[in-house]
C-alpha cells in the first residue's frame, strides 16, 4: 500500500498488485453476499487447492485447503512435477459452494462441495465422462448444469452424481490459429451468456478472449476486440497475462482476477515466483468487457478496505498441526511429518534420499518476495537434512547438515554437485538462505542470486555459496509452479526448532 497525489495535491491511496504474490496460478473467484472466495491450482503439492477469503477483493487470507485429506487427493510418486491439480473453478449455487477441478495425475476431473468454503469439503464425485482439463460449472435459469472444458467443449452434467446427460459438444474455441484454448468460464450477464477463455499458451503469448450468445451452449459471437487482454509483444514488467475469472462487486462494478508473472533480469527474462494472482478493473462498453491496466499498483476501490494480518514468516511449531500455507510433496504422512514427537519442533523422517527424489520428505512455503531472508534451526541428530529452495526434482539448491558438517548442493537439470562445505560443531545449527535481486547488467544477467550459509556458535553468519537464481526459474526448468522454500530430511530423523521467512521487499 502506498500514497500518491491527485492533481489537487490530496493523497490518493493505491494498493499493491499482485493481490496474491508468489505461486498462486489459475485463480477462480466467486462472491456470496459481501464475501469473496478464491482458489488456485496446486499441482504436485499437498494439501491441494488453497482457499482464500476477502471482504474487499484486495486483501486475502487463506482459510484452508479444499483437498486436505488423502482420500480426496492422490498424487502418485511416479508422476512428474507440474502434474497433479490443474485449474479449479469455484462457484456458489443453491446454498452450497461447488469446486470442479482436474487431477491430471490420477482420475481426471472431479467435483467437490462444501457449505463453508473453509471446509470441510466433500470427498470427490468423479467425472469419468467429462473430457479434458480446466473444467467450469454454470447453471441456467432452468437449473441445468453446464460443464465446459479446455478445447473448448461442453457437457450437460448432473453435478450430484457426476453423470453426463448430454454431450460433449464443441464450442467456440477462441481466435483462429491461437494455441491452447483453455480455462473456459461461462457467465450469464444481462441478456447474454459470455464464454471467456485463455488462449496463446500460458507463456509470453498468453491472452484472454471472450464471446457471447443467447444460450449457454451457443452459438457464440466473438468480441470484435479480442483478445480483450494480453501483454504479449510489450515491454511491460508484468507478462503472461491470462487465465481470468470475473466477479461483480457490491457497488455493481466488475473486476477480473487473472494470472501473470513478473520476469526479471536480462533476456529472455526469468520469473521465479511462479504465476501470481492479479486484479484488474472491468468496464462494459457496448456489451463487451474492457479490461483496465494490469499494473503493480491498483487504485483503491470505492468501498471500505478490510486489511488482514499478514501471514507470519516465523513458525515455532508449537501447534499440533501446521498452518494452511505449508506444503508437502504429493503427500504428508503423519509418520514422516509431525509436530508432536518433540514439543516445539517439526520432526521429519526421511523417505527419498535427496531433493532429487519425488518422495522426499519436504515441508515448505511459497517464495512470495523478490528479496527475502530465511533461517531455520535444525538438529540433524544422526540423520541428514536441511534447508532447500525447490522448483522441481531437477532444479533445486539446498544446504544440509549431517555428521558435523554442512554442505551446499545444487541440482540443475542432469547436473548435481556439491558446491561448498564446512565443519560445524555437533548439535543444532542455524542454516540460512538469502535471496538477493540482481540489477540487469546485460542480456544474460540472472534475476537474483541465492546465497546459502550457516550461523556458527556465537552468532557469526558465514555465507558458503552464492548461486545464480535463473536456474531455478520457469524459463529454465519449465513447468507451471514457482519456488518453494522449506525443510527436508534425506536420511534418518531430523528435527527443526523454528523456521523464519523475512521479506526484504514489498
TrEMBL record:
Could you tell me which Pfam families the record lists for this protein? GH43_C2, Glyco_hydro_43
* Family annotation (SUPFAM superfamilies): Arabinanase/levansucrase/invertase, Concanavalin A-like lectins/glucanases
InterPro entries with a match to the protein in the record: ConA-like_dom_sf, GH43_C2, Glyco_hydro_43, Glyco_hydro_beta-prop_sf, Glycosyl_Hydrlase_43
Q: What are the alphabetically sorted keywords of the record?
A: Glycosidase, Hydrolase
Q: Which Gene3D superfamilies match?
A: 2.60.120.200, Glycosyl hydrolase domain, family 43 (2.115.10.20)
Beta-xylosidase C-terminal Concanavalin A-like domain location: 314-502
Molecular function GO terms recorded? hydrolase activity
Q: Which family does it belong to?
A: Belongs to the glycosyl hydrolase 43 family.
Record PANTHER family: BETA-XYLOSIDASE (PTHR42812), BETA-XYLOSIDASE-RELATED (PTHR42812:SF12)
What name has this protein been given in UniProt? Glycoside hydrolase family 43 protein
Amino acid at each position: 500500500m502506498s500514497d500518491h497525489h491527485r492533481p489537487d495535491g490530496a493523497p490518493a491511496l493505491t494498493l499493491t498488485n499482485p493481490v496474491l504474490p508468489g505461486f498462486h496460478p489459475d485463480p477462480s473467484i466467486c462472491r456470496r453476499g459481501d464475501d469473496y472466495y478464491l482458489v488456485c491450482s496446486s499441482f504436485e503439492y499437498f494439501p491441494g487447492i488453497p482457499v482464500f477469503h476477502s471482504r474487499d477483493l484486495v486483501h486475502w487470507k487463506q482459510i484452508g485447503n479444499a483437498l486436505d485429506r488423502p482420500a480426496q487427493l492422490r498424487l502418485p510418486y511416479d508422476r512428474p512435477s507440474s502434474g497433479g491439480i490443474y485449474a479449479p473453478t469455484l462457484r456458489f449455487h443453491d446454498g452450497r459452494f461447488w469446486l470442479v477441478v482436474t487431477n491430471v495425475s490420477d482420475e481426471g476431473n472431479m467435483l467437490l462441495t462444501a457449505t463453508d468454503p473453509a471446509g470441510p469439503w466433500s470427498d470427490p464425485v468423479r467425472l469419468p465422462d467429462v473430457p479434458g482439463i480446466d473444467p467450469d460449472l454454470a447453471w441456467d435459469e432452468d437449473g441445468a448444469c453446464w460443464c465446459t472444458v479446455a478445447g473448448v467443449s461442453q457437457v450437460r452434467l448432473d453435478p450430484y452424481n457426476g453423470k453426463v446427460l448430454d454431450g460433449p459438444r464443441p464450442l467456440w474455441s477462441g481466435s483462429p490459429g491461437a494455441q491452447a484454448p483453455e480455462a473456459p468460464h461461462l457467465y450469464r450477464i444481462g441478456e447474454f451468456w459470455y464464454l471467456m477463455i485463455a488462449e496463446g499458451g500460458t507463456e509470453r503469448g498468453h491472452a484472454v478472449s471472450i464471446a457471447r450468445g443467447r444460450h449457454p451452449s451457443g452459438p457464440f459471437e466473438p468480441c470484435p476486440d479480442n483478445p480483450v487482454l494480453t501483454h504479449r509483444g510489450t515491454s511491460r514488467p508484468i507478462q503472461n497475462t491470462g487465465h481470468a475469472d470475473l466477479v461483480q462487486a457490491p457497488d455493481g462494478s466488475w473486476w477480473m482476477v487473472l494470472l501473470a508473472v513478473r520476469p526479471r533480469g536480462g533476456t529472455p527474462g526469468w520469473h521465479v515466483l511462479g504465476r501470481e494472482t492479479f486484479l484488474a478493473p472491468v468496464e462494459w462498453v457496448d456489451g463487451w468487457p474492457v479490461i483496465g491496466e494490469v499494473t503493480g499498483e491498483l487504485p483503491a476501490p470505492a468501498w471500505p478496505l478490510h486489511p488482514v494480518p499478514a501471514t507470519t514468516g516465523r513458525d515455532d511449531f508449537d501447534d499440533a498441526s501446521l498452518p494452511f500455507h505449508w506444503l508437502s510433496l504429493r503427500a504428508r504422512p503423519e509418520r514422516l511429518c509431525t509436530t508432536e514427537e518433540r514439543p516445539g519442533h517439526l520432526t521429519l523422517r526421511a523417505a527419498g534420499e535427496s531433493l532429487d527424489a519425488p518422495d522426499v520428505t519436504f515441508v515448505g512455503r511459497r517464495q512470495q518476495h523478490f528479496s527475502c531472508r530465511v533461517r531455520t534451526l535444525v538438529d540433524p541428530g544422526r540423520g541428514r537434512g536441511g534447508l532447500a529452495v525447490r522448483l522441481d526434482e531437477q532444479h533445486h539448491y539446498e544446504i544440509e547438515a549431517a555428521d558435523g558438517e554442512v554442505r551446499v548442493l545444487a541440482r540443475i537439470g542432469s547436473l548435481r554437485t556439491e558446491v561448498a562445505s564446512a565443519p560445524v560443531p555437533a548439535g543444532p545449527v542455524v542454516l540460512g538462505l538469502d535471496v538477493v535481486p540482481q540489477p540487469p547488467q546485460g542480456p544474460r544477467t540472472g534475476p537474483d542470486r541465492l546465497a546459502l550459509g550457516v550461523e556458527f556458535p556465537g552468532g557469526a553468519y558465514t555465507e558458503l555459496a552464492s548461486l545464480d537464481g535463473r536456474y531455478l526459474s520457469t524459463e529454465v526448468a519449465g513447468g507451471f509452479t514457482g519456488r518453494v522454500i522449506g525443510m527436508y530430511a534425506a536420511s534418518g530423523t531430523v528435527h527443526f526448532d523454528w523456521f523464519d521467512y523475512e521479506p526484504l521487499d514489498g
